[in-house]
Design a protein that fits this description.
CATH architecture: Orthogonal Bundle
Strand content: 5-15%
Strand order of the largest sheet: 1-2
Mean pLDDT: 92
CATH class: Mainly Alpha
Largest sheet: 2 strands, antiparallel
CATH topology: Transferase(Phosphotransferase), domain 1
CATH superfamily: Transferase(Phosphotransferase) domain 1
Oligomer: single chain
Distance between the termini: 37 Å
Helix content: 25-40%
Number of strands: 8
Order of helices and strands: EEHHEEEEHHEEHHHH
Number of domains: 1
Length: 346
C-alpha cells in the first residue's frame, strides 16, 4: 500500500525485502528526525506544568494551521487520489480510478516530524502521517477485496481516538460490544478526519490534565472528559471507558482553552467542523481541505514560515538528531561492520 502512496504528508516508502524462505520481511521508510507530534504535545504539556500561568508556552497558531492543512490534505489524498491544498486547485472531485485508503489509526503518535531537506530552512518541519499497519482499502460492503475487519466491523485502532459514531453510549457493556463497533458503523474517511480534528485540538491545548485522583496526564488527551473518569464502574477497564461516549467531550472548542494569546475564530471553526459529532454533517477530508484553505486565509495565515518569535517553535519542543552532520559510512567500513556482526553470531 505504501508503495502506491505518494504525498508529502504521508510516510515515504523507500524499499522492502522478504527473505527467500518467507519467514520475515521488512519495510524501509523515510527517517523522520524530529520525533512525533505526540512528543511535541507532551513537551509543551510538561513545560506548561512547570512555569507560572503568565509564562506558559503555547503552540503557535501558524504551526497548528501548517499541521492541520498538510495532514488533512494527506487524508484527502488517501480518499481522492490527489492533492487539493494548492491555492489554484478549485476542482475537488476525486480521481475516478483511485481506490480510497483508510488509515484507521490517526493520532498524534502516528504523525512524525521531519526536518526540511535544505539545511537552515526557516519553514516548519514536515508533518508526516505514518504507521499504515492498520490501513486498508475502502472497498464497498460485500466487495471480494473488502478488508475482513471492515466486513466484521471489528474494533481496531486506538480507542482514545475513535470517532463518536464508533463509540457506545455511554460505554460498552458486553464482551461483544468490546469487540465490534456499534450498529452499522465501521472506520471511514470521516472517522479518520474526526481523529485528525481531535489531534489538532490536543495540539492547541497541550495539557497537562489533572484526573480526579490528582494524577496529571500529559500528551494528546484534551478531548477526553476526565471528569467522567470517576463515574466508570470500578471493574471497567480503561479501554472500555475510552470506547464509550462517556469519555468524550461533546464539543472541541479551542476558544474555551485557557491560553494567554488565544486562537482565532477561524481555527475554532475548522476544528469544530472536523470534529462534528454527526458523521452525516461532518465533511469529507476533501471538503475539509477547501474549508481549511478558506478559513486559514481569513485568519491571515499564509505560508509555513514563522513570522517573528511568537511563531517559532522552541528547541525543546522536538527531538534533534545530528544525522545531517555525520560522516557517511564508506563501503569498506560497512563491510567491516557486517563481518564483525557475522563473527559475533557464529
Amino acid at each position: 500500500m505504501l508503495h502506491r502512496l505518494r504525498h508529502g504528508s504521508i510516510s515515504f516508502y523507500t524499499a522492502s525485502f522478504i527473505t527467500p524462505d518467507l519467514s520475515s520481511a521488512s519495510v524501509y521508510v523515510e527517517f523522520c528526525d524530529r520525533g512525533s507530534l505526540e512528543n511535541l504535545i507532551t513537551a509543551y504539556g510538561e513545560h506548561r506544568n512547570s512555569v507560572p500561568n503568565n509564562q506558559k508556552p503555547e503552540v503557535p497558531e501558524r504551526f497548528i494551521w501548517h499541521a492541520f492543512a498538510g495532514l488533512c490534505d494527506g487524508l484527502a489524498y488517501l480518499f481522492g487520489g490527489r492533492s487539493y491544498i494548492a491555492e489554484g486547485v478549485t476542482d475537488y472531485t476525486p480521481d475516478p480510478k483511485w481506490i480510497p485508503v483508510l488509515h484507521r489509526d490517526m493520532k498524534p503518535d502516528n504523525v512524525l516530524l521531519r526536518s526540511r531537506e535544505t539545511l537552515g530552512s526557516k519553514r516548519y518541519w514536515y508533518c508526516v502521517l505514518s504507521d499504515f499497519g492498520l490501513a486498508c482499502e475502502d472497498r464497498p460492503r460485500g466487495h471480494p477485496s473488502e478488508d475482513r475487519y471492515q466486513h466484521l466491523q471489528s474494533q481496531l485502532g486506538t480507542a482514545h481516538y475513535y470517532a463518536p459514531e464508533l463509540c457506545y453510549n455511554p460505554y460498552p457493556k458486553t464482551t461483544e460490544e468490546t469487540t465490534y463497533f456499534p450498529g452499522d458503523q465501521r472506520h471511514s474517511a470521516k472517522s479518520d478526519l474526526w481523529a485528525l480534528g481531535a489531534s489538532m485540538y490536543n495540539l492547541a491545548d497541550c495539557g497537562p490534565h489533572i484526573m480526579h485522583d490528582g494524577r496529571a496526564v500529559t500528551g494528546g488527551f484534551a478531548h477526553i472528559n476526565w471528569s467522567n473518569w470517576y463515574q466508570k464502574p470500578p471493574t471497567m477497564q480503561a479501554h472500555t471507558f475510552y470506547s464509550g461516549t462517556l469519555s468524550r467531550k461533546p464539543v472541541l472548542d479551542v476558544s474555551k482553552i485557557n491560553s494567554n494569546r488565544g486562537y482565532s475564530k477561524q481555527l475554532r471553526d475548522a476544528i469544530l467542523q472536523a470534529t462534528e459529532q454527526d458523521p452525516k454533517k461532518r465533511p469529507s477530508p476533501i471538503k475539509m481541505v477547501g474549508s481549511i484553505k478558506l478559513l486559514m486565509a481569513q485568519a491571515g495565515f499564509h505560508g509555513h514560515v514563522p513570522e517573528g518569535s511568537n511563531d517559532e517553535l522552541p528547541s525543546w519542543a522536538s527531538k534533534v538528531h545530528d544525522y545531517h552532520s555525520r560522516t557517511p559510512i564508506t563501503p569498506s567500513q560497512l563491510a567491516e561492520m557486517q563481518e564483525a556482526e557475522r563473527s559475533k553470531n557464529r
